[in-house]
Amino acid sequence: MIFGILIVLIGVAIIVRAVFHIDLPIFRILIGIFLLYLGVQFILGWPRWHWHAETEGDSAVFGYREFRLGPGQQPERNYSILFGRTLLDLTELQSPAEDANVEIHVVFGKAVVRVNPAAPLEVEANVAFGNASLPDRTQVVVGRQVYCSENAATAPHKVRIHANVVFGSLELERG
After folding, report:
1. pTM above 0.70, yes or no
2. CB 152 within 8 A of CB 174
3. Secondary structure of residue 51 in the 3-state scheme
4. What own/partner pairs with CB < 8 Å and gap ≥ 24 does 30-33 have?
5. Is the Cβ–Cβ distance between 111 and 168 less than 8 Å?
């Protein structure tokens, strides 16, 4: 099928060049489209022949996903948002029995994380040309910011969120 489309495009380019005297660089356009396709494949990890496969965690790619914790349930370790939107609801996580470490990677997307106000919270946000809105209303556009809730200093176990935002948005809400 792709070979047939290629032959039709070459034929159209020859007719347009002969009739309208317009030169369409079909091969350059096809090579550009192929390189874009290949680049997206590498970013999303779709090729089956890549070297490292991400096997744990959850992701939202080109879409919307919600992740809600049930009572007593521990969160996944990794959440990746690429060109998508995600709601991560951690409000059921009040005072964890052990440290709950969560990594969130947002690239050209948006993540909203809801955390229980009673939970001891420690957040490290690394942002590059994006936006991270922390619970104390701090806005981070470029750089690194650390947030600790008032009860995090005395709590034996904490909810630790490590967030990386690149050309995206992260909102952390208490409640």
Report:
1. no
2. no
3. coil
4. 30/6
5. yes
